[in-house]
Amino acid sequence: MVAAACAVLLTTGMTAGTAQAGPPKPTPPGTVRSPIASGAAPAGKTGVFDSRREAGTQQALRQRGAARAAVAAPALKSFRAGLGVEGVVDLDPLTGTPRVVGRLDGFLTDPSAAAPAAIATGYLNRYPEVFGLSAADVSRLSLRRDYVDIAGTHHLSFVQSVGGVPLFGNGVQAHVTKDGRLIQINGSPVAGLPTSLPAVKLTPDAARRAALTNIAAPVRDAKAATAADAVSTTVFSGGDRAQRVVFQSPGGPRPAWQTITRGAKNELFLEVVDAQDGRTLYRHSLTEHEAADASGLAWDYYPGAPKGGTQKRRDFTEAGWLPAGSQTLDGNTAHVFLDVNVNLKVDPGEEVPSGAKGRFDYPFTDFTAQTGAAGFCSSTYPCSWNSAVAGSWRTNADQDGTQVFYYLGNFHDHLAAFPIGFTRAAGNFEKVDGDAIFAAADLGADDPRGFFVDNAFMSTPPDGESPLMGMFLFHARPDVWADDPFLAGNAGDEADIVYHEYTHGLSNRLVVDAQGNSTLDSEQSGAMGEAWSDWYAEDYLVDKGFVKDTAAAGDVRVGEYVSHGRDLIRTQPLDCPVGSTDAKCHGTDGAGPGGYTYGDYGRIIGFPEVHADGEIWGETLWDLRKALGTTLTESLVTRAMELSPASPSFLDMRNSILQADTVVNGGQAHKKIWQVFAQRGMGFFAATLDGDDNDPVEDFNTPPPAGTPTGSLTGTITDQDSGAPAAGVTVEFAGHTSGFAGDYVGVTGADGTYTISGILPGTYPKVRARGGVYEPQIRTISIASRTNVVNWVMRHDWAALSGGSAVTAFDGDPWPTCGPDLMLDMDQSTGVSWFTAFNPDGTLKPITTVVKLPAAVNINGIAINPTGTCGDDGSSSVGGYKVETSVDGTTWTDASAGTFHVADQNRMNSLPLAPASTAGVRYVRYTILSTQVAESGGTCPSFDFSGCFFVDTVELAVYGMPG
Ligand SMILES: [Ca+2]
Ligand SMILES: [Ca+2]
Ligand SMILES: [Ca+2]
Ligand SMILES: [Ca+2]
Fold first, then answer.
1. Tell me: the pLDDT tens digits for 933-945?
2. DSSP three-state, residue 42
3. Helix (H) / strand (E) containing 442
4. What is the CA(679)–ligand 3 centre distance, in A?
5. How close is the Cα of 429 to the center of ligand 2, in Å?
6. Could you give the domains of the chain?
């Protein structure tokens, strides 16, 4: 909740709402329509016509199929039964013969040394009543193709014919394994074909003329040359062709001409024309599909990149991302528009329109010469707008929208493919499931305030609802931020930025609770979310050769383009090994040089922050990729998300990666995985209290060898003030309680004793005791291979909510998610955050909270942790304070007053108490009088000190005995 937000880059975004507002659907483009064809062309395949698929024909065929099924021949029934419960016998209503015969749990025949074609025809001959083919029919099949795939399977295609004239469409296909087992028969063969057909009435030229009329093409005169073969192959001057075929219509086989003619716009059409009456039986364009495909220009990495920097034509329709003829970028994978007025709705003028032939052809206009050094442009990092010229971003806006659409489709396909497998079943983003990505490019570009720069985000609701992605311009207007260090470009033009945001969708759909809601809600899981996003993006770009990861360190940089080759988005590149002395792996003042380790958590930029701390996880996964290769690592990292517990810590996810290795890889990579994590400080004895621990302890050990004798831990826990045994207190080894490697957890009984056994020997940095009304304690404990005794003395916190205390009044204005209850939760990682208000003389307006204790207490101590929290820096810590007590909530007695200093941050500070203030206390009133901004070296107002906006307290505790 730091007020100055300029440094926050590539966030997951918490923007409310999923912006379901849809634009009007595009009007289907004009298509060539036949004045003859009686059926409307099916959607999506304009120009296709098949007389067998006309509604009336289909109705008749359905009735025929139903009638046939009702009186299935006994032979067919017994055949079907013989295939078992997973047998498939699917009859084609047009032919009454099987479109598929097979079984899902095996093969149709045993292995055989016979020729594959003989295996297939032998099977057809064995079941004439199923396939409807007599021995004579089978003998007339001609083998057109025997395709052997890379697994050795034969895919056979047999053509049926009448008098040497082939049947159009129908036939027999058979698939045979390399050891001669029949897998499946399909193809809907036509049963009982006659040996001859009525004479044709149309000449080849008449058929050609009918075909041209059918496609509304001008009928040209042409000379015909007809061969003396069985199909009367005819070639016309001008290139049109015709040959005889047999066409299986619902009424039976008919003689026909198959023609290939050229339409009005030079498209080629294949048609089948009835040879007796000139009727169109079938039509399919051979080229219009190509011409009507939606396509556009896009590069693979960023403009000017050494590899993947050049715009190329991309077929959006063939890829399945956008229907042919689309006039906007609203397809199955995404709806990209330009939300220049940042209302998260598609307003008039915000769609990216297609040009001629469904093409989104928007060549990139280079602004480098216009923008120059002010925008950090160069030939290697060209600019796409000039922030000093209003509206100059419009020139490349449609180009950028098209580019974003390409990236989203491309990454959709990459993530869906093996081995990642982010498919529809896994919860990916597709319009057919109601959740295509709603992507706003040039977000806020036209907003007069000029704030919407240097960022990108993705917010991901559960499966079935569209996520919202935002891509901003980079580089602010000079009057808004003169020193903006970023390139004057478009976020949507850089692959890793778009892929980073897309991956937020992956992680938030895979790490979920049973309802499908994301559980990436802890500090460390948020950091992993950022790291995964960096990792999947760069992993892909390196795989494809667009980013070159050499043996040297520091090649792989997120935001290479918008940062014009500097470390502006992350503190250093991903490929920075631990201990690297390469200048590119410079690290930070807080974490030191070289690759980061777990102990750098919260120190990389001086305070906990998900993008910075995520670099530890990202670099670790980059090591893992180096150790295991990209394919296995993609698999394990993805499967681990699916196995993850809720709100995971880095150690939870390490465990899930190990478990994933057990599941999909037989545990073969266990040793290497441990080595990688141990080297990054996530070794066996590493400790984190949970996913919200901002101060995890690193360890560089792999697990002790199998068979190492274990030890146990036992002891007694007593109440410091009463001396009584403390029951119900949990003792747990942080980092060893997620359920994977044996939980090290024990609970005290009524006598205050606990025992944990089976502990591998070593030093565990965070062993925590907590429970009930007792203030948690954390200790480092060494375990030897024997019984180890550790006793604890714990303190009853009478202000703890869990013991029945309550905030009964306060006069400040707390941040919505950081209210005063968080002072009383005995959690040192949470606290209250108040908005500040100042008097005219600059002093803070005091903020008061009243806490009611569950019983009257003779107090012997009050302690406060005054530190900045809820995302604020140390300047938001409390300086001056006052504490009063009361037995009735009406009359107050001064108990303590003073000032907390920087040295008092991050700990509980015991307050000196006035003797008259401690007896029979039921109420405690805490007043904040000032912040630590001045002691932190700041003055307000200043965006550099969060204490100018918020003042916080982590915890307040009250000790004593019932009074
Ligand atoms: Ca809008
Ligand atoms: Ca979905
Ligand atoms: Ca490298
Ligand atoms: Ca707290």
1. 999 999 988 878 9
2. coil
3. none
4. 18
5. 4
6. 49-56+197-290 (no CATH), 72-186 (3.10.450), 296-510 (3.10.170.10), 524-679 (1.10.390.10), 711-794 (2.60.40.1120), 801-962 (2.60.120.260)
